[in-house]
């Protein structure tokens, strides 16, 4: 779960389609439990998904 307004995303990948209208998911460490996992692009504020220069997982 992401609780803070600032998070670091290591890479992106394709997954299930989500409410953001695409299938892009980002790999990050959660703020609440400090565990690694994927979050849908719909909860990440970017100008495009995936952002230019970010590696695919």
Automatic annotation (TrEMBL):
Top-level taxon of the source organism: Bacteria
The protein's name in its UniProt record: Uncharacterized protein
Organism: Streptomyces fulvorobeus
């Amino acid at each position: 779960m992401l609780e803070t307004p600032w998070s670091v995303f290591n890479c992106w990948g394709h997954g299930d389609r989500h409410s953001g209208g695409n299938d892009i998911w980002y790999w990050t460490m959660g703020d609440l439990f400090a565990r690694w996992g994927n979050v849908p692009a719909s909860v990440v504020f970017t100008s495009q998904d995936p952002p230019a220069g970010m590696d695919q997982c």
